[in-house]
Amino acid sequence: MADKEMKLKIFTANMSFGDEKVVDIPLKWSHVLKRIKVFGDTVYFLCENTERYLNERYLLILDLKTKESKEIDLKNTVESPISDFEILDDRILLLSYVQNRLIAQVKEMATGKVYTVEDVFQPGMVVQEVFGDELTGVFNLLINFRTKDRSKSFLMSSINKEGVLLRNHLFENESKNRENIDMIISNEGPLKFIAGTVGMTNKVGYNGFYGGYLADGSDPFNNIVEINDLDGFFAFEKDGGEKSRKSWEKSRNPSLKGALAAREIIKNDHGYLLYSDHFLPVGNSFYIKDGVYDRNYYRLNPMKNLSIGRKGGMDDSFIDTDTGRTVKVELGDPKIYFSFISSHVVQFDNNGNVLWDYAVPLPKKSTFVPLSYGQIFSGNKDHFIYEFEGKLFYSLISEGDFQEINQEVKILNPQKGDKVLSLRNSDLEVKALNNGSFLLTGRQQIRYVKEDGQAVDENNFFFQELKVTDL
Carries keyword Transferase (predicted)? Predict the structure, then answer.
């Protein structure tokens, strides 16, 4: 009897939404997509059997030009769930956790040979980000962990294509009662720019940002700017932020009452832009430190993978930074939810100096899964867009000054003329593209009158390009 098989449907189109195609790719029965990565015209899908005790997983590779696919078997690797992977030339870097310890393996796709990195990673070390550097031909792992005195540190490990650990670069904040909570790295350019948030350990609160280059003789962690020194952080408040700034100045240990989650670094015409979300987490205090309060939750929680989580799915857990263990979270648990306040942007120049900052006020949207609130495209000006209750809202910012703020964007209506009786948009997703526009996807529930006078209902999936010049 032949094995059962499912079909994975993939919609492809060029940047002008021409040459549209739907590609059917065979997917093994009872398998789900755990990770998806795109490199040029090639898409890599990490597939895993839902029956985890079977330890069945493979890499599905799709060539977008030829529409051909192939499978790479992962049976001869560590028998533990793969948390992440990366591709560099013909090698795959696979990351797993065994007894709370990180295991890194490099597999040759052509020969199947596997190289295991020497046992150098300590229990409690968690990979926050992994990327391959084509210029140097090495894999880089950004790892966070806590030291014996409970302070948080970051480690950058570089591994060659034969699984040899080349170097470790340790990042530590030596300021008393202060630690680096978030750290993000830009992969553009020969020198890596890093930025993130800092906080007070004695109050478990955020109070500033840092930014600078990852290079010998450079210490970005000493390049700290406190929130109260940023003109735009509280500026959206009714009194222009005056009350918040005075309260900050009076406090002996000033810090935010909410969480400040650094989302991404964008290289633009002015230098490097750091986008963060400010929100209030409400609920169980267990999640304060290394759960939803830092990037470990957003980067490693499978709920961020839209193919698995956000709409309810197979895995709703995150990896605890202290132990490396998977911690289960019940979706919809009323003890754990989040209310957004603002999306904040700080613009660094190419030397890590702050040029300006601003905050986009957000509706009091509550969610059980705190994904990034909006999407931002940045060149000479910044274009920020977000969805709220089935509607889109757009802001245009020039050098820290708002030219437009939270203006509603009309969503494409179906081509049904004036015979539409009702229209409802749902499951909206917005993604910033690298061509200066945004991609909007979602579903439209339509009720309209046909030519014969009969009312019918349709539920359609749609794509729409939102060009910044037309918003």
Answer: yes
